[in-house]
Amino acid sequence: MSLPASDQELLLLHNPRCSKSRQVKALLEERGLTFAERRYLDDPLDAYELRDLATRLGRPIAKWTRRMEKAFAEAQLGPESGDEAWAAAMAAEPVLMERPILIAGQRARVGRPPEAVLELL
Length: 121
What we know:
Helix 2 crosses helix 4 (about 85-90). The chain is an alpha+beta fold and about 120 residues long. Strands 2-1-3-4 form a four-stranded mixed sheet, sandwiched between helices. A hairpin with a 2-residue loop joins strand 3 and strand 4. Helix content is about 30%, strand content about 15%.
């Protein structure tokens, strides 16, 4: 599943085991919005998609990486690591991606707090 091309397309990068992710999904459903759901742990974004998502978020990948995960320590990423290293690590270990993320065309928001995604609507 590719990332949305149009502002009318909504894509939720979702982990159903995450309470914040479930809250964002509920916010969208309560508003009767049509959206696609991509369970990024089962269908990970590749390095190209992650770099594209960084542009849509307006934040480098390092700024939306979950640093408390065991995979983060194993990836040995640090301030000197380039964008390619961050993208490769997250593509290999999608658990490193902060969640949830709502994408609307060329814009995206991390749903922390869940209401932050409403800026896109």
